[in-house]
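Shipment paperwork, digital attachment
Item: protein structure file
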Amino acid sequence: MPVYNAEHYLNESIDSILNQSYSDFEFVILNDGSTDRSAEVIQSYTDKRIRFIDNPKNLGLIASLNIGLEICKGIYIVRMDQDDFSLPQRIEKQLRFMDENPEYGLIGCWFEDFGENIETKVVRYSSDDTHIRIRHLYQTHIAHPTAVLRKSVIDEHNLRFNPEFVHGEDYAFWVQMSAYCKLSNYPEMLVRKRDHPRNISNKYAQTQQDTCAKVKQTQFEKMGLTISREEIELYTRFANPDWTFSLQEMEIMHALLEKIASGNECTNFIPKEALKAYLAEKWFHLCLQNRNIGKTGLNRWNKLSFRNAYTSPLKSKIKMTAQSLGISV
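Attachment content:
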């Protein structure tokens, strides 16, 4: 747990780890040059499992994370953020999964977003390795404070958080790890993730957006593709999804989908048939739902070279055909 000026929520976060049903761990807490009472809060604990590291000056999150990767001694590294809350069985359940599935090097879990002035909701990320890889083309699909990492994978391949991906270092690290192991999310809400104005995603939104675009770009490069920032933003809208594409954007998106499928066919960066099925399904529903393209939805759908990778529901297919004939349904 890296800590920087977190005195307001720190007790709750530390207590949530010390009170876990699984108790055989070392709790490394790195105080990264805090100027508030954070160090005092940490040092008020007498639990012998706590290993307190006090950076003499603020090194930043990425440097602190990498120090943690170096000094942690366990078989697994469990991540925790200074302002979040782990449910009592979090570590026990995630570690049991890792013990039983040695081909997995990284697992997150479902989490609850909560905080002042936001609607509390449970975020349910996919537990399927292939689905996670597909979703990583447009956003991270493992929440950093829910992550458990297999240290042998990190050590064997000398993996570290990259300072070139500031405020998106976790997203870049998951993609890096995925070259050497499978990924999953435990299908249960085990972490409460606090939203507040001091969150990195709130304070540095534009920097984080730029960094995430770089991570997406690196993945397309692994398919042998050169993708522009504009194309990345268009693909992100397509995947989210957004039904407001203009006619020109539809043309660009169609060409981009053909390019992605072709590039992945050659590299198998993501299992080929799964990616084509995903892209075809998204394209079908864009052609069906986008009111800006008039009667041309069916024609645009039929132009996709790998459309047979997705079998659309009969009712939706009838609706698209009716729309192409100008029949209101």
